[in-house]
What we know:
five-stranded mixed sheet
Amino acid sequence: xxxxxxxxxxxxxxxxxxxxxxxxxxxxxxxxxxxxxxxxxxxxxxxxxxxxxxxxxxxxxxxxxxxxxxxxxxxxxxxxxxxxxxxxxxxxxxxxxxxxxxxxxxxxxxxxxxxxxxxxxxxxxxxxxxxxxxxxxxxxxxxxxxxxxxxxxxxxxxxxxxxxxxxxxxxxxxxxxxxxxxxxxxxxxxxxxxxxxxxxxxxxxxxxxxxxxxxxxxxxxxxxxxxxxxxxxxxxxxxxxxxxxxxxxxxxxxxxxxxxxxxxxxxxxxxxxxxxxxxxxxxxxxxxxxxxxxxxxxxxxxxxxxxxxxxxxxxxxxxxxxxxxxxxxxxxxxxxxxxxxxxxxxxxxxxxxxxxxxxxxxxxxxxxxxxxxxxxxxxxxxxxxxxxxxxxxxxxxxxxxxxxxxxxxxxxxxxxxxxxxxxxxxxxxxxxxxxxxxxxxxxxxxxxxxxxxxxxxxxxxxxxxxxxxxxxxxxxxxxxxxxxxxxxxxxxxxxxxxxxxxxxx
Length: 505
């Protein structure tokens, strides 16, 4: 099932926008004031268009803009080094996360935990994402990529087009399911969407609705009437369904012990000790590193963060390379000249293809899976030369940062060569002054994404496997696909249909 917004949404937007003009009142913040102060909650959480609006505002007003009462948006060129680093240079306090921003209770998980709890959780989970752990997990990833290739081969031989967005979801949810629970959601095998996947995307929208209504509870009645009460309540309920399922799957995995399958190590193998799953590892201070309660709470985070984000990036990859056939041909030639047989496609070999990595980086720049980074709270500090009072909420929008012409030349064009080293024959000096330091698709600092290296390896394996086997093209009528996607921290995507052809020879 693909979740879609109501057909009458544009009319509903107009009605609620009119209400927002009456109700939302700006407050003083030391940054340029824009009309966006009336719309951040609406644009971010209901209509899903605010990252693009912030991009426009940064271009018009500069790197620090006012987007709401006591809220600012800061370009990542400033925000990442001055807000998201361990401690801003010369500042007395840290920029803490906003509790309950993503969902109620997120402060108990690695997403929004206070600093000390976050430190403990991150240290416990980090073992599962080490280079050694990823090498152990390679066989799991390869198994699912191979299954995807075979399923798509059957479709291609029948002359059927495929919704590549759907198959990317199947692949990465199945991979993360096996890495977390030692069992998949079986979507790749059956070719059908597991309820966990559909619930996930509806739940994302439900969390966004809840953020809006928590901020403006007096709008709950008109909001429910205009958007549809059943639609709102259904979206909000889906997170609970997935939480229950995740806790049950986590409990089952814990009961399996250190290795659920002989010779196959997953996330739990590293979270738990070497002797038995009953005796937990101790951290350096001798405290219990990750109690079962913490594992339960964070398993749903691992599944969501480790699947949808990579699936989004890969969906956009097929869109943008389908639209830029010259770059696609270069990449296909690189992959097909590197490998003579599919058995040679592995993490080490894929990591040697510079143009492949450049295409992945450019994909993440143009379509960062996290369109908005969860906000921070100013302790009372200077940011970009402006004093930002204590308590001010600070947002950084990667989509706006990565599309800012102050940071990147030709920001709206797919130019993988900007990521190549100067010694590469395809390097182009036109992009020599790009601000690559502000490119942080996995966030930055001590709360940066733990799964960064896992995601890069997954993407390299998947792209290499598919481009070695297939030629592909977008079906007509999807040229503006990227313009229609809505962002609610992550992207709720429309289908993307491609035609695959098993390549000759």
